Amino acid sequence: MSIVDSGPSLNSSVAAFRRFNRVYTRFIGVLDEELLNSGYSLAEARVLYELATRHTPTAKEIAVALGMDPAYLSRILARFEKSSLLKRTTSKKDARSAYLALTQKGKSRFEKLNALSEEQARGILRALPPTGQTNLIGYMSDLERLLAPNAQEGARYVLRPHRPGDMGWVVHREGALYAQEYGFDETFEALVARIVADFLTEFDPKRERCWIAEVNGQNVGHIFLVKHPTEPSTAKLRLLLVEPSARGLRLGSALVEECVNFARAVGYKKITLWTQSILVAAHRIYQKAGFRLVEEQANCKFGKDLVSQTWELELTSGLRKGERQDGRTGRTPTNV
Amino acid sequence: MSIVDSGPSLNSSVAAFRRFNRVYTRFIGVLDEELLNSGYSLAEARVLYELATRHTPTAKEIAVALGMDPAYLSRILARFEKSSLLKRTTSKKDARSAYLALTQKGKSRFEKLNALSEEQARGILRALPPTGQTNLIGYMSDLERLLAPNAQEGARYVLRPHRPGDMGWVVHREGALYAQEYGFDETFEALVARIVADFLTEFDPKRERCWIAEVNGQNVGHIFLVKHPTEPSTAKLRLLLVEPSARGLRLGSALVEECVNFARAVGYKKITLWTQSILVAAHRIYQKAGFRLVEEQANCKFGKDLVSQTWELELTSGLRKGERQDGRTGRTPTNV
DNA sequence: TCATATTGATGGACAATGTCAACTACTTTT
DNA sequence: AAAAGTAGTTGACATTGTCCATCAATATGA
C-alpha cells in the first residue's frame, strides 16, 4: 500500500506516532462522549475546569491555556455568569480585563463534573492489572515530560512507610533492575527475598523502618534501616533503590537523609552499609551523606566478579541534618 | 485545593491519568489545527484516511471505526462523490450498502493530505533528541497496547517460565492481594518471600518449575511445582494466583493443568497442595483437575483464624490430560 | 408465506459549535 | 497627544454535528 511508509526507522517512527494519535484521539473521544451527559458541552467543561483550578484568572489566560477563540470563550463566560456560576471583578490595574471566580454554585457544579470524570478514570484504571496500571501512568508521565518539558512540576515524590505488597515489590524491582543493568543472576533476587522476609518477621517498629517513595501513586524507590545483628548501637542501611524513571529528583539523597535522621533520633551511634563497587551513582549519595568507605573485598557473587564495600557513618560527632563530613563545606560542626 | 484528591495511591494515579488526557487533548488540537489549512475539515480528513486505508469499505464500517453519526458521514461521502473523489458500487450481497473506493483523484488528494500530516509528525520527531524519539515511540506503542489490547484475539494469555524480577512480583501480588481480599497480615508476605527465595536457591529445572501468565505483556498470574521436601516421588503445587483483572479466562485451570502435565511427564506419582478453606474459587479448580481434599486443620495464621487444607492428586492411575477423576465424564481410562 | 422486525443509508430540521471582522474601552508607546 | 496595541464583546455567519423520520432491502419467525 502506498500510504504506508517503507524503509528506515524515522519513517516507521512517524507511522507509529501517527497511529498513536489516531488511536488516542478516538480514545479521548469516547471518554468525552460519556461526560457529555453531564449537561455541559466539552468546551464548557474545559472552561469550568480552568476556572476551578486557577486563582482568579482573566479571560485571556484561559483562552490561551485552552487555545480557544476569545469570542467563543466570551460567550461561554457570559452564559456562566447569567446562570450565576461565575462572578467577574473588574481589575483595578487594567480596567479592560476582569478577574473570574466561580461562585459557590459554580464550584459545586464543577465538583459534580469532576467527580464524574474521576469516576470514569478510576474505572479505566481498575480494569487494568496492577502492572498495567503502573505502566500506564509511567508511560503517560514520560510522554508528558517529552512533549511538555517545561511543566515538570508534577513530579513530586512522597515518602511513606511500607504496606502489604511493598516487600514483594522491593524484591521485584531489585531483581529486575540489577539483572537488567548489571547482569546479576537470580541468587541476588533470592537474597533480597530473604532480607525482606527477615525484615517482616523480626520487624521492630521502634528501631527499624522501611521507606517507600511514590511519584504519581507509583512506587519509584525504597530504603531500609535495620538493627545490626550483633551490635545494638549500630544500624544497617539496606536496599537503596531509585527507579530509572525517577532519577534526577534527588530522591536517593532524600531517602538516605530520612534514614540518617531516623537513626539519630532513635539513638544509634553508627550506621553501616554494604554495597558493590560498581554501583557508582549510589556512592556519591553515601558520600554526600557523610558515609566513609572503610573496607573493600573482592568476591564472586550473583554470577559476577564483584568488589563489595562497607561504608560507615558515625553519628556521635554532633553533626546535624544537612551538615557534611566530607569537608566540602567550610562550616565547622557546632553544638547540638 | 479541593479538586486535588488526597489519600491512597489510586487517587494520584487517577490525577496523573486525567492530567495526561488534558495535555494530550491540547497537543492533538494543535496538530489538527495545522492540518486544517489543507482545505479539508477534520472529519473529512479522517474519512478520507479511512477510505484510503481500507479495502472497499462500506459506510457503516467507517461510521463505526470513527464513532461517527451515519447521517453526517453520509453527507460527507455525498460531497466526496460530487467532487469525484469517490466511487460507489452497490453491493450485490446487500443492495442497501455500497462499496466505497477512492477515485484516482481521491487518492491523489489523500496523498497530499497524508504527506502534510507525515511532514508534521516528522518535524515533531526531528525536534527531539534521538533517545527522546525512541522513547516517545516506545511509550506510545506501550500505551496503545495497554489501551487497545489485541482486539481480534480478545484477552489471550501466554504461559512462560520465570525471569529475573518475577519472584519479587509473585511476593508482591500474593502479599497485596491476600491482604486486600482476606485481610492477611505481613507474615503471609514474609512466608511467600521465603518460599520463593528457597525456590530460587534450590531450583532443580528438571523436576521443578514456575509458570508466569501474561496478558498483553503484563503478569497476571503464576503457579509453582516443586519437589516435596521428603518424598521424592511427590510434588508440591504452590502459590497459585490469578489477578482479578484476568479472571474469567480459565487461567487458573490452565495453570494447574500445566503443572499436572509437567509432574506426570517428569515421573512424579503424586501431587499435594496446601491451601486455606476460605479460598473457594481455587478449590473448584483443584477439584476439576482431580485433586481430592484429604485433610483439614484449624489454625491461627496470618493474623486470621483459618482452616488449612491438604489436597492430593494421584498420578498413577494412567489418566491422561483432559480426563477426569471426579466421575463426571462417562469415559473409562484407556491405555497409556 | 406473509407479517414483523432490523439494518444501511439518507434527507430535513435544527441546535451546537466555532470563526471572522468590526467595535468599545481602555493602556502603552513614542 | 497621537498612534499602536490589548482585553473583551457583539453581530453575522459558516461549519459541524445531532435527532428524527423515512425508504428500501434484508432477516426472522410463526
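qc> Chain A has ten helices and nine strands.
qc> done
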